[in-house]
């Protein structure tokens, strides 16, 4: 059945770094006749990964869109970044796709690498199928990988085919469990139809029964036939699979070796037969019905003369150059093949296009003629890494601010914040790779060199004993002088109670109108204590003093208040405090012991762990960890969890820091204040 009259369909390819996702993308394009030869990552001849950062690192750093045509039907394929640090783009692409292909390694111990993707797809009920890639690798195992993936998926997986192996155990072809036909692979060429091998006929019958049982849970007709030991017709099975996939009830599983185009045409045909239509996807997303053009922006970027451009999926009607959509007049409509865009003037339902000069459009917005509408869209992930940055040349600070705003507009997973207590601008992201890509883009696109440093930890200090301090400020320089005389009691407060000021003045020895000035001076002095850090959890009580009818003033009493604190604090037993964060680590269960070791190695206190709600096979580890120990922790967590572990952190309390660690912090602060 041809779907072409119903619009262009869209498939997003997602998977962990190293799974061969981009190779599959290139093989699909080559099999469709879009490219004359299949590009390779090794030779850097791929349609995608053309950005300088991608070429330099050998990884996908941005989504790659390619319009193509397979068996007389129009398609858009989106190759998404594999790094978990670049997941924001991947989520955006999955949200607008009709179907998602999850590319997995053929090793069961690496199945967990796609767990966050499966979780996102299940949560949003996005139709998806799995392609187990790299079946040419030694020790590749379809069945064990299938079971490992099933343990992570909320949806039942349905194995669509089983492998044919030679006498050496190498996979040489497949048997389709619906049609019960067998094919022998020919590297980089179409497969040959062969008789079903007798040696694995029993395996085929057993696995086909498993497929039918999975479908029977959602199809009464197939259920009745299975119970009556009848065999459903292939067309009935195909129809049931397509319906269940459309509703995200089952997840079909295919396999192959994309590097040799083995299994690629079979995957293409499954996409062509089973992928939902654009109108079905729009209904699933709850997009408004009506007439006239409607599209959804899922990525914005700067594009030379086209200015601020938008990648968008057209859900309804025809979009043309010059139309007003949302608040923007469309400058151009172009088709896409990697980084190459071709003006086409207009585009229709289902197409993914680049729209030029879209100054106001935002990712996730649905645009119609003269109107825009916000719809459900993934929130940007919380930052997990940060760098303090500043322009190498002070004259470039304004330019840096503009360039950062542009970066943040294109990548919502990046953010900046101004740390008022340290005076630093922090660039925040999902990890070291994410931040380094951003810095590289600042250099290549804006011509900016920046200096970076680890963010300064917000240490504080407090006092451990009370003192009474007398302070007099007196200055005579002709005319009115300056005079203020006070006695204050300074004492520690409980942790977290902050600063408190009061007075016990009687008899007007310090006029009431001067008392607030004493408080103001004390607060100013507490901004830098004996150890060089802001002082917290202190009470100051003004108990006595004197004044001069002519020379006293607010300014004089403010000076006296500051002087009293500065003189008293060294004798109050200063104590260094470090911020301690409440940290929740999300970890695949098999790696939970490693997470516990990470916590204890960073002076952390384990609070406990439990199963992570809604995440099959995952745990949450709760801990208290000093803020200074969080630097680089996300890299360590990912290195111990196949790249998928993550954490959230929030301030919990301040805690005393003593010993060698405290000495090092105090010495570093002293050096910084000298600079």
Automatic annotation (TrEMBL):
InterPro entries: EFG_II, EFG_III/V, EFG_IV, EFG_V, EFG_V-like, P-loop_NTPase, Ribosomal_Su5_D2-typ_SF, Ribsml_uS5_D2-typ_fold_subgr. GO terms for molecular function: GTP binding; GTPase activity; guanosine tetraphosphate binding; translation elongation factor activity. Residues 575-665 form the Elongation factor EFG domain. GO terms for biological process: ribosome disassembly. It comes from the Bacteria. Residues 330-350 are annotated as: Disordered. Residues 456-573 form the Translation elongation factor EFG/EF2 domain. Gene3D superfamilies: 3.30.230.10, 3.30.70.240, Elongation Factor G (Translational Gtpase), domain 3, P-loop containing nucleotide triphosphate hydrolases, Translation factors. SMART domains: EFG_C, EFG_IV. Keywords: Elongation factor, GTP-binding, Nucleotide-binding, Protein biosynthesis. Catalyzes the GTP-dependent ribosomal translocation step during translation elongation. During this step, the ribosome changes from the pre-translocational (PRE) to the post-translocational (POST) state as the newly formed A-site-bound peptidyl-tRNA and P-site-bound deacylated tRNA move to the P and E sites, respectively. Catalyzes the coordinated movement of the two tRNA molecules, the mRNA and conformational changes in the ribosome. This is Elongation factor G. It comes from Fuscovulum blasticum DSM 2131.
